Amino acid sequence: MTMVNAASAVPAPKKQKISQFRRLLWHVNRTDLGWVTKTALTGMQLGARAKRIEMLNTLPVTPEWSEASRKLSEDGYVDVTSIVDRNLAEAVAGVADNKVSRLDELAGKQQLGHKSFWVSLLDEDLVNGAFATDHPFVRYALQPSVLRIMGDFMHELPQLSDVLLTLSRPTENKPLSYSQLWHLDHDDKRVCKLFIYLTDVRDNKDGPLTFIPAPSSKSFRNTLKSHMSDDKVFSKVDRSAVKEIIAPRLSSFIVNTARCLHMGSRILSDRTRLLYTATYIQPPRMYPEPPARFRAAGSLSEVDRAVMRL
Ligand SMILES: O=C(O)CCC(=O)C(=O)O
């Protein structure tokens, strides 16, 4: 008698095979093998890359910014509080404070997604999901110092992917989830985030952004598991490697979140934490471009347009 395996008797539909292939590619791209994909994509757009290098070189440079870029490359993070434009940071904080003062009204309108401990407060500023380029959140992300520091690290003008305001609140006795667990960002192969604390982060009850510098995070680079518990992480890395960013309101820092294992928003008691985040990647993007996140308003330089793909 011939036995036929039910699974092999019916051929898998073509579509299913494609999606399995995509899933596999997605996993592979998260590991160091993803550099093969990235290099191939970059190779197909060498002209665009040359132009982005040229544009990076038109930006001003100072010894302090070069040192910050060196630190970002070596350690995976750098404090830029003394480098960034304080007035722009104040403008970001002004927008954020206004949103928080209307929290109940805004939270009521929002459809809370899976990250119920994060309330996104900027929805009302978007038109078709896009920010105007003269919005303080966008202007902060376009500062020449930031573009230069990140660009020197990426060896070309970075691409601004998103800007975000998040209010983190206590999750009481719920198990830790999503960004409260240790993870690497896999938006692309090179991802850096620019943060501003918009409330004081005085101790660990305020849920500081917490990370492990790039050299000590190395052993997690090819881990397929996306979010990890403390136990899992500390079975491989000594706790002394951990950096908690305890810093006052308007502190600003850049973290290479693709290379530094990180987590945060573990808010305790009655605390809340307000955080600005701008996400940058090294182009060309590995995955299909999402819908436009920025819409032109006011005058824009060639560099600004290239950074936002406008
Ligand atoms: O809430 C936090 O501090 C973590 C943020 C985070 O994981 C991220 O922006 O990738």
TrEMBL record:
Top-level taxon of origin: Bacteria
Protein name: Phytanoyl-CoA dioxygenase (PhyH)
Species: Bradyrhizobium canariense
